[in-house]
């Protein structure tokens, strides 16, 4: 073992502390004396189940008369505690890897003594302290990886002052919480040329970092959630960079995005959640992932996307059309896009998710869209689309799970072909100008009566439930909803709707529906929200509604319902009278209207009540007086006398006490009598 220079025990399921696992019970001093570790150049114990602190190991290694250790890899274990200052004694160390453990505290200032250090990997720990300025001494340092640590404090140019070899710097946090602040002098010129810069969820702004001006070798730039509220300066766009990743999302960056950027093959661009304006950017086919959502891009959708960016596989905001055979998701929600959907979208045969809600798109849906027969989610809500709801949606999109055409200008009747969508579990056609009857075949929407496969979902959706719109993403597959509200629908509520046993929301409010509420409404055991308000429904409220145990939002107001309001179970908790208001013929709680036969019996006179109450109370007290006498006497007598009879010592003590008290009383009386006589004799003189 003395001549061992390379030891790799990674991925061996080692457990316990490092020295226990490594030394197998050998004492630390013996390890040092034997030189078992002192000749090591490489020690790799990563991807095990080691725990505890590393102080003892570092003390062993740093205590050698001469240490040759160049690589120390303890990553992916369960090691914890603070990093010891003795780390700075490993002067020959070139690579230090402590990633994915549970270390806490600060990076020790002694790190600045590792003058040969080239790689520092401390990512995925719980280090909540500061970064020492001594880090800036390490002129040979090439890579710094500090990501996924809640580091605090302020980083200045002093932390990078002598890092002349630095190529990669990463402090990347998945959480949006910012705890580390970069306060770099804008006049500072870095001594390095970075190729890889990843700073996320750190305070880098509010100005765009000027010190990037001379970083002409960058291939990866991540400045996400960096608190930058500025326009990107022109010099950045002119750096002639060839980028593999550009992520400047979740800031307040503004201005126009030029088409001059150059990208390496299979690159990713994220400009989302900013204030960029103007036309959509158009880059080369090397860009495969493009995220432009939540900005202020405007103008028509460029048809050239299919020609210029033909390798796109993931596009958030603008994933377009011709020549994009692998495109499966389009998310353009919440922008200011205008114009019509191009018919060229029909070429997207692999499209699964089309989400373009809350824009200013108009016109009729292009018939070519029916060629996208594999669509799972079609969300076009919050636009100005017009015309009839196309029948081909039901005929050509058999896998549709979500159909949301809410808040548009669609008119005409609801096509019965939609009833063939057996997988559909969210149908939202609310806030349009639809008329005619609700198709009687809605009971065939078996997707609202069966369990859903959660693996078929991506993205997020606004769903109106419980009287408000909420955003659903990871649990979207659990939502079963039918919303046809705010239209001009007429006729009766079809009985078939009661077949949809997993339906959670049924909203048919603000229409012209007539007839009665289906008698079998109680079969919708999953129903949480039922809104039938502002129609012309008549008849009684079915008693089965009381069996809807999940119901927590109910609105039947502004109809012509009559009779007694059912009571019991869940309806007892829905005691807001506004639920039933403007139904003049309804009666019973929670309304104030009385039903026939509900008149209260006359109340007795108050004087009679008081007299009867007093008599009852007196009789009650007398009875309990006599009842309590017997037990009270028994307990009192035997509690004292019984004890004296049984216990000789207590009996003697008791009579001794009585005798002493008697003697004390006689003495006190005698003294007082003598004192009184003396006073009387003195008074007679």
UniProtKB/TrEMBL annotation:
Which residue spans traverse the membrane?
624-646
Q: How is this protein situated with respect to the membrane?
A: Single-pass type I membrane protein
Name a single GO cellular component: plasma membrane
One Pfam match, by short name? Answer: LRR_8
- Which SUPFAM superfamilies does this chain map to? L domain-like, RNI-like
Does the record bear Cell membrane in its keywords? yes
Q: Carries keyword Repeat?
A: yes
Q: Region (Disordered) spans which residues?
A: 589-615
The record's section on InterPro entries has: Leu-rich_rpt, Leu-rich_rpt_typical-subtyp, LRR_dom_sf, LRR_R13L4/SHOC2-like, RLP23-like
Ranges annotated as biased composition (Basic and acidic residues): 596-615
| Residue stretches making up the Disease resistance R13L4/SHOC-2-like LRR domain | 28-217
Major place of residence: membrane
Localization, UniProt: Cell membrane
**Keywords noted in UniProt:** Cell membrane, Glycoprotein, Leucine-rich repeat, Membrane, Receptor, Repeat, Signal, Transmembrane, Transmembrane helix
State the similarity comment: Belongs to the RLP family.
The name on file for this protein is: Receptor-like protein 12
Native organism is: Vitis vinifera
Q: What lineage does UniProt assign to this protein's organism?
A: Eukaryota, Viridiplantae, Streptophyta, Embryophyta, Tracheophyta
């Amino acid at each position: 073992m003395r001549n061992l220079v390379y030891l790799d025990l990674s991925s061996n399921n080692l457990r316990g502390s490092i020295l226990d696992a490594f030394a197998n019970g050998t004492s630390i001093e013996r390890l040092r004396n034997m030189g078992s570790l002192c000749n090591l150049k490489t020690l790799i114990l990563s991807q095990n189940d080691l725990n505890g602190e590393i102080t003892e190991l570092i003390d062993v290694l740093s205590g050698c008369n001469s240490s040759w250790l160049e690589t120390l890899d303890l990553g992916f274990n369960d090691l914890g505690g603070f990093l010891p200052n003795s780390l700075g004694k490993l002067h020959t160390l070139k690579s230090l890897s402590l990633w994915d453990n549970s270390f806490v505290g600060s990076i020790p200032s002694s790190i600045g003594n590792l003058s040969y250090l080239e790689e520092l990997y401390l990512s995925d720990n719980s280090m909540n302290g500061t970064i020492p300025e001594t880090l800036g001494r390490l002129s040979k340092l090439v890579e710094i990886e500090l990501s996924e640590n809640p580091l605090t404090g302020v980083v200045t140019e002093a932390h990078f002052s002598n890092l002349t070899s630095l190529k990669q710097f990463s402090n990347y946090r998945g959480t949006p919480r910012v705890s580390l602040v970069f306060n770099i002098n804008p006049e500072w010129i870095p001594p390095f040329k970075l190729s890889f810069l990843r700073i996320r969820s750190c305070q880098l702004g509010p100005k765009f970092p000027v010190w990037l001006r001379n970083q002409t070798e960058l291939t990866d730039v991540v400045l996400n959630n960096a608190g930058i509220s500025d326009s990107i300066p022109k010099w950045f766009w002119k750096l002639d960079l060839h980028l593999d990743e550009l992520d400047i999302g979740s800031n307040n960056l503004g201005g126009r995005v030029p088409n001059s950027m150059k990208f390496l093959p299979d690159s990713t661009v994220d400009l989302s959640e900013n204030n960029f304006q103007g036309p959509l950017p158009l880059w080369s086919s090397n860009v495969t992932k493009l995220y432009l959502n939540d900005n202020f891009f405007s103008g028509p959708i460029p048809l050239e996307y299919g020609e210029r960016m033909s390798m796109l596989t993931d596009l958030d905001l603008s994933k377009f059309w011709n020549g994009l055979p692998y495109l499966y998701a389009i998310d353009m929600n919440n922008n200011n896009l205008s114009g019509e959907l191009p018919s060229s979208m029909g070429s997207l045969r692999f499209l699964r998710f089309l989400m373009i809600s809350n824009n200013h798109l108009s016109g009729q849906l292009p018939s070519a869209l029916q060629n996208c027969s594999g669509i799972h989610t079609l969300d076009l809500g919050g636009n100005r689309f017009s015309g009839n709801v196309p029948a081909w949606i039901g005929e050509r999109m058999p896998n549709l799970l979500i159909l949301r055409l809410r808040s548009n200008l669609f008119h005409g009747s609801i096509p019965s072909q939609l009833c063939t969508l057996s997988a559909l579990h969210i149908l939202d056609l609310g806030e349009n100008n639809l008329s005619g009857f609700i198709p009687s075949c809605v009971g065939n929407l078996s997707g609202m009566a069966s369990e859903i496969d959660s693996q078929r979902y991506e993205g997020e959706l606004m769903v109106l439930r419980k009287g408000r719109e909420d955003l659903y993403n990871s649990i979207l597959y659990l939502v079963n909803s039918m919303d046809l509200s705010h239209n001009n629908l007429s006729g009766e509520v079809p009985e078939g709707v009661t077949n949809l046993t997993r339906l959670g929301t049924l909203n048919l409010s603000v229409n012209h529906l007539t007839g009665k509420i289906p008698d079998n409404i109680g079969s919708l055991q999953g129903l949480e929200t039922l809104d039938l308000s502002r129609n012309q429904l008549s008849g009684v409220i079915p008693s089965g509604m009381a069996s809807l145990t999940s119901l927590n939002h109910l609105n039947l107001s502004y109809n012509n319902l009559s009779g007694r309001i059912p009571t019991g179970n869940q309806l007892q908790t829905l005691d807001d009278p506004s639920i039933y208001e403007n139904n003049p013929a309804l009666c019973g709680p929670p309304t104030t209207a009385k039903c026939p036969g509900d008149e209260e019996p006359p109340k007795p006179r108050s004087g009679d009540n008081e007299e009867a109450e007093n008599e009852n109370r007196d009789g009650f007290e007398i009875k309990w007086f006599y009842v309590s006498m017997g037990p009270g006497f028994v307990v009192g007598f035997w509690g004292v006398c019984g004890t004296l009879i049984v216990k000789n010592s207590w009996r003697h003590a008791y009579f001794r006490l009585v005798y002493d008290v008697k003697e004390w009383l006689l003495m006190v009386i005698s003294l007082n009598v003598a004192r009184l006589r003396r006073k009387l004799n003195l008074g007679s003189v």
